[in-house]
């Protein structure tokens, strides 16, 4: 599993994923910080990354493009910092790892997890 962390989330997430042996990069270390979501999505697709974001636009892109990959993890909590929700995110990744490897949209909030298999629609 390889995770590409969107600009709207802290680079500190890299340490959380690394601690659990998950390869990850923050977009600021790969691409232009102001790049459009489609650029990040294309990079993730070409390089076999799962996108980790707080941005609902990625789910919309998946639905419009009707693609099987990349998988997207959307975190929908008030506090997005790893020290607050890191355990929840890692638990969700472990629970839905096979779905994410095949292509899925995983939504994480403090009260529930929701997974949709790709393509959407």
Q: Please, could you describe this protein's structure?
A:
39% of the residues lie in helices and 21% in strands. The protein has helices at 13-19, 37-47, 57-65, 82-95, 97-102, and strands at 2-5, 23-26, 50-53, 72-75, 104-108, 113-117. Helix 1 (13-19) links the parallel strand 1 and strand 2 (23-26). The chain starts with a strand and ends with a strand.
Structure in a nutshell:
The protein has 121 residues and is α/β, with parallel strands linked by helices. It is built from 5 helices and 6 strands, in the order E-H-E-H-E-H-E-H-H-E-E.
Structural class: alpha/beta
The tally of structural domains comes to 1
Helix content: 25-40%
Task: Tell me the strand order in the biggest sheet.
Answer: 2-1-3-4-5-6
Number of beta-strand segments: 6
- Based on Cα principal axes, name the global outline: globular
Largest sheet: 6 strands, mixed
Nearest-integer average pLDDT:
96
Q: What Rg is obtained from the alpha carbons, in whole angstroms?
A: 13 Å
Beta-strand fraction estimate: 15-25%
Work out the oligomeric state of the chains in this entry. single chain
Low-confidence stretches: none
List the total number of helices: 5
List the secondary-structure elements in sequence, H or E: EHEHEHEHHEE
Distance between the termini: 25 Å
């Amino acid at each position: 599993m390889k995770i590409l962390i969107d600009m709207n989330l802290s680079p500190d997430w890299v340490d959380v994923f690394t601690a659990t042996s998950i390869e990850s990069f923050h977009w600021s270390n790969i691409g232009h910080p102001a790049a459009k979501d489609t650029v990040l999505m294309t990079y993730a697709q070409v390089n076999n990354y799962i996108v980790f974001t707080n941005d609902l636009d990625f789910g919309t892109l998946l639905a419009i493009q009707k693609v099987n990959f990349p998988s997207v993890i959307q975190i929908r909590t008030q506090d997005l910092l790893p020290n607050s929700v890191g355990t929840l995110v890692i638990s969700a990744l472990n629970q839905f790892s096979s779905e994410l490897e095949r292509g899925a949209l995983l939504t994480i909030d403090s009260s529930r997890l929701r997974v949709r298999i790709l393509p959407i629609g």
